[in-house]
Design goal:
Blueprint (H helix, E strand, L loop, with lengths): L2 H22 L4 H8 L3 H8 L8 H10 L16 H18 L6
Helix pairs in contact: 1-4, 2-3
Length: 105
């Protein structure tokens, strides 16, 4: 996944949580605006999923204003292409190695 796609995915997840919290708390755009410190029009844009012009930092600040803590999880990218083939060969060799007694080497 490229950096832009990763950023868009992060923004979408953060925005979805903002929208969920606003709905759970039955906050109007005006009430959310007062609590968060954004113009009501910006709240409406987030509700509609238009977050392209909003930074990840700003979305996190909005969640913080809604008394939420944001945690980040980092995980390795799944192997693919030539690396995946190499890993599969290595695993197969390890399986075969386990089946052959050391004295038969």
């Amino acid at each position: 996944m490229n950096q832009c796609a990763d950023t868009n995915q992060i923004k979408a997840e953060l925005a979805a949580n903002i929208v969920r919290l606003l709905a759970e708390r039955a906050l109007t755009d005006a009430a959310a605006s007062e609590q968060i410190g954004l113009p009501p029009a910006d709240i409406a844009l987030i509700r509609e999923g238009h977050v392209g012009g909003v930074s990840v930092d700003r979305l996190i600040e909005i969640l913080n204003a809604l008394d939420q803590r944001v945690e980040v999880k980092i995980s390795p990218v799944a192997a693919r292409g030539p690396l995946l083939r190499i890993l599969n060969i290595w695993r197969k060799m390890a399986e075969l190695d386990a089946k052959i007694p050391p004295e038969e080497y």
